[in-house]
Amino acid sequence: MAEVEHHPSALRNRQPILEQLLRICGADAQGLALEVASGTGCHVEAFAPAFPNLTFQPSEYVVVGVDSEERAAEYGKIGSRRGLPELENIDGVGCTKFANVLPAVALDVSAPWSDWPSSVRAKEGEHTLVFCSNTLHISPWECTTGLAAGAGKALAKEGKLLIYGPFKVNGNFVGEDGGAGNANFDASLRQRNPLWGIRDLEEVASVAAKAGLTLHEKVAMPANNLLLHFIKTE
């Protein structure tokens, strides 16, 4: 099997994210954890050994009939697969290494719940955690609404949805540089694809609320990012 190569940004952010997950969930967290848009599996590779009592289900968007390299060029995928199919790439650092990681599944997060993987739907209302990183700004808005709706279905009462990435707050770009970096980043994203762009925290929280998810906290993270912590309250 070809060696998995993770994107440098994913390697940089996974430790700060893990530290927050340990704070929020506790190292003794139990149950099911769904990762949406696992990329190359960089995060689940770090999370699985830190949460031995959580069973992780990684997932990734797979375009049928499109080569991995072609997809990377068009859709801006994070990470180099060296020709590996997306799911095999994740499994190389996931289920083949850790007993608490399931084989990766294909998931189009913009799809209605009825079209999510049967293995995920079979555990409706039983998940402890749904995690997604660096996805909402490089995908259509339908992926944000789909993530909220799907997490609302997947999570148990008091379950947690954690979303990492860049966000605007009250319509304003934020960051250690006053938001200038994210403003430039947003402009470059929208030039590349008009359906992409940094999302507004309040708009994300609004669609999450419709799925029974309440924003509990937003945590400032390195590189002008935020970690949004939602709790299933309904």
Automatic annotation (TrEMBL):
A matching Pfam family: DUF938
Domain of life: Eukaryota
InterPro entries in the cross-refs: DUF938, SAM-dependent_MTases_sf
Family: Belongs to the UPF0585 family.
Identification of the protein by name: DUF938 domain-containing protein
